[in-house]
């Protein structure tokens, strides 16, 4: 998928050349605070592990399920993807995403989430997309709600991060 989202922002494939941007933006404490699985500090070795995950996912599904969010200059400024199991769960996926702090509050992630959901329903055969956000991440919850996701529950002590439990809000979007 190579898709223009507006204002020069695009969704494209993830590239090995994105390593420096990943390290730069994922070492921001504000971005790390809002994410579940991204290590901190984030290193070039972490980026290489991510490239391996993306490559395996693409090979398993026969097409990409993770995309770079790029600025008008072509620099990676975020990432969005779908985690999907093929056995007994091929109809659904869980969405995850992050965006570099300088691009927060501009509607970039709302556009990216909407585009990936359309692509997932129209081209990947999905009928359900789930997403979880930390209960304190009001902005991410708002992105999901703007894209038609409905709240499905409140998950107490759902995540364990750096030895601390965090509650989460569960959202779902059904075709």
Number of domains: 1
Characterize the overall form.
Answer: globular
Into which percent range does the helicity of residues fall? 25-40%
CATH homologous superfamily designation: Gcn5-related N-acetyltransferase (GNAT)
Radius of gyration: 15 Å
Give the CATH topology. Answer: Aminopeptidase
Proportion of β residues?
25-35%
Tell me what you see in this structure.
The protein has 175 residues and is an alpha+beta fold. The chain has one domain: Gcn5-related N-acetyltransferase (GNAT) (Aminopeptidase, 3-Layer(aba) Sandwich). Helices cover 32% and strands 34% of the residues. An 8-stranded mixed β-sheet has the order 1-2-3-4-5-6-8-7, sandwiched between helices. Helix 1 crosses helix 3. The protein is globular and about 40 Å long. The chain starts with a strand and ends with a strand.
What topology emerges from the helices and strands here?
Layout: E1 3-6, E2 9-12, H1 19-26, H2 29-33, H3 44-61, E3 66-70, E4 76-83, E5 92-99, H4 108-123, E6 128-134, H5 138-146, E7 150-161, E8 164-174
Parallel strand pairs: 5-6
Antiparallel strand pairs: 1-2, 2-3, 3-4, 4-5, 6-8, 7-8
Helix pairs in contact: 1-3
Q: Which keywords apply here?
A:
32% helix, 5 helices, alpha+beta, 175 residues, Aminopeptidase, single chain, 8-stranded mixed β-sheet, globular
């Amino acid at each position: 998928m190579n898709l223009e989202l507006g204002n020069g922002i695009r969704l494209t494939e993830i590239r090995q050349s994105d390593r420096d941007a990943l390290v730069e933006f994922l070492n921001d404490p504000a971005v790390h605070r809002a994410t579940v699985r991204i290590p901190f500090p984030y290193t070039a070795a972490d980026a290489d592990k991510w490239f391996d995950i993306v490559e395996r996912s693409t090979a398993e599904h026969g097409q990409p399920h993770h995309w770079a969010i790029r600025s008008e200059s072509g620099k990676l400024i975020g990432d969005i993807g779908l985690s999907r199991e093929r056995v007994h769960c091929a109809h659904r996926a869980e969405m995850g995403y992050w965006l570099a702090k300088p691009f927060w509050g501009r509607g970039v992630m709302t556009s990216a989430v909407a585009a990936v959901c359309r692509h997932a329903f129209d081209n990947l055969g999905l009928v359900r997309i789930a997403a979880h956000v930390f209960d304190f991440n009001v902005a991410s919850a708002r992105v999901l709600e703007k894209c038609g996701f409905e709240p499905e529950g409140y998950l107490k002590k759902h995540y364990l991060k750096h030895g601390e439990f965090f509650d989460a809000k569960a959202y779902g979007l059904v075709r």
